[in-house]
Specification:
elongated, mainly alpha, 9 helices, homodimer, Tetracycline Repressor, domain 2, DNA-binding
DNA sequence: ATTTAATAGACGATCGGTCGTATACTTTTG
DNA sequence: CAAAAGTATACGACCGATCGTCTATTAAAT
C-alpha cells in the first residue's frame, strides 16, 4: 500500500531513467489509500498527501482532474486490493468453507493490529461520510459491497451444500448481513483500539449461520 | 432537535423578552446535532453552523471554548437524547422484552426515513472519524456505547428470564454485538438510502438471540 | 517547431480562532 | 438610593493557515 516517491526536476523528465508515468500516480494512490483508510475523504487534504508522496502540488492536477477523480481512483484501487485479499482467504481449498471466512477475519484482525487500529476500511469510511461526498461516489461504493457480498455468498453456498450450515440460510442475505455488521465491527475496533469487536461479531455471525 | 433562532440586537439583551441565557447555546447545539449526524465533525465548519443558527461568530466563543468543547457538548447532548429515545421503547411494559427492541428498531427506521437517510448516528459517525478527532473524544464515545449497551443488556436479561431466548446467551455480550452491528447497519442504510439494512440486521440479531 | 509531461506558485474561499466594542443586567460603594 | 464598577451577552471585522483549483512556464520528446 506504500510507494516510494522520487525527487523530480522541473519540466518533462527524460525517458531513460523514468520508470514511467505511472510512478507518480501510483505514489499518490498509495499514500492516498493510507490516508483515507485512516481519516476519510473529507478530512484528508491534498497538501498532506502531496507532502507525504513528495509530489509537488502542480503535478497533482496533471494526474487527476480534481479531488473527486482522485477519490474515485482510490475507491477502485481499494476495491481491487481488498477483493484480492478476500479471495486469497476464501479460495483456500485446504480449509472447509466456514473456516475460510474465519481465516479472512483473522487476517483482518492482524491487519488492523499492525496499524494500531488506526486504519479501517476505506469503503466503510466513505459510506459513513456519504453525506459529505460527491454523489457520484455512491454507486461506486455500493458496487464494491455487491462484489464483496457475492464472494462471501459463494462460500456460504458451498458451506450449505457441504451441510456445514443450516439448510434454510439464504447465502445472499447472510452475506449482506455479514458486511453490514463487519463494517460496524471495524468502526468499533478503531474506537476501542482492540480486535475484540471483530471477534465478537465474527463469533455471532458463525453462531447465526450454524444455527440457521 | 431544531431550535428557532431569534434576531438579536447588539449588546446584552434585556431580561424581559429573553428566554434566557440558554437560548443561543441551545440553538447552537440543535443545529450542531443536525449537522454532525449528517456530515460528521471534521467536515462541518463552524461558519455553517453559525449561519444556520443565525448566531454571530463572536457569540460562539462566548458559549464554547473552541470547536472541541462544542463537540464534547454535542456528544453529551446526543447521548442523552438517544438514551431517552431508547428508554421509551425499552421500558414499554405492554410489550414482551424482545418486541421492545423491535419497537426501537422500527422507531429508528422511521427516524432515518424522515430525513431521507441523510442523518445517521452521531456517535457512530464520530467513532469512524476518531483518527481525525481530538483524543479526548474517545472515552466520551465509548462511555455512550457502554450506556446504550447496558440498556439493551437489561432487556435481554429480562427476555432470558421470561424464557424468550436461549438460556446460554450472555446478555452483555449480545448487547455489544447488537451495537456493533447496528452502527454498521445505520452506515449502510445511509449509503443505500434504504431501511433494508436496518431490517436485515435486526432480523439476523433476533434469529441469533432466539437460536442461542 | 510543435506537442506534451511536469512543475511552480498564486488564487479566492473557507478553516478555526481572536479581538475590540456595544449594550444590559448585577454588585459594590458612598 | 444613586452613581460607579464589574459581568454577561452580542456583534462582526479580522487573522494566519489551509482548502481545492488553475494558469503560466519549463524542458523533454517528436
Amino acid at each position: 500500500m506504500n510507494t516510494v516517491p522520487v525527487k523530480r526536476k522541473r519540466g518533462r523528465p527524460p525517458k531513460s531513467q523514468n520508470t514511467g508515468y505511472q510512478d507518480t500516480r501510483q505514489a499518490l494512490i498509495g499514500v492516498g489509500l493510507a490516508a483515507l483508510t485512516e481519516k476519510g475523504y473529507s478530512y484528508t487534504g491534498l497538501d498532506e498527501i502531496l507532502r507525504q508522496a513528495k509530489v509537488p502540488k502542480g503535478s497533482f492536477y496533471h494526474y487527476f482532474d480534481n479531488k473527486e477523480a482522485f477519490g474515485k481512483a482510490l475507491i477502485e484501487a481499494y476495491g481491487r486490493f481488498f477483493a484480492n485479499k478476500l479471495e486469497r482467504s476464501l479460495t483456500d481449498n485446504t480449509l472447509p468453507p466456514l473456516e475460510r471466512i474465519r481465516a479472512f477475519v483473522e487476517g483482518a484482525k492482524a491487519g488492523m493490529e499492525k496499524f494500531d487500529f488506526r486504519r479501517g476500511c476505506l469503503i466503510g469510511n466513505m459510506g459513513q461520510e456519504m453525506a459529505a461526498l460527491p454523489e457520484s461516489f455512491r454507486n461506486l461504493l455500493r458496487e464494491v459491497f455487491r462484489d464483496w457480498e457475492a464472494r462471501i455468498a459463494r462460500v456460504l453456498e458451498e458451506a450449505r451444500q457441504a451441510g456445514d450450515i443450516s439448510e434454510d440460510v439464504v447465502p445472499e442475505q447472510m452475506a449482506q448481513f455479514f458486511w453490514i455488521g463487519w463494517e460496524g465491527a471495524v468502526l468499533r475496533a478503531k474506537l476501542d483500539q482492540s480486535p475484540q469487536p471483530l471477534e465478537q461479531f465474527a463469533d455471532g455471525f458463525m453462531a447465526l449461520v450454524r444455527g440457521g
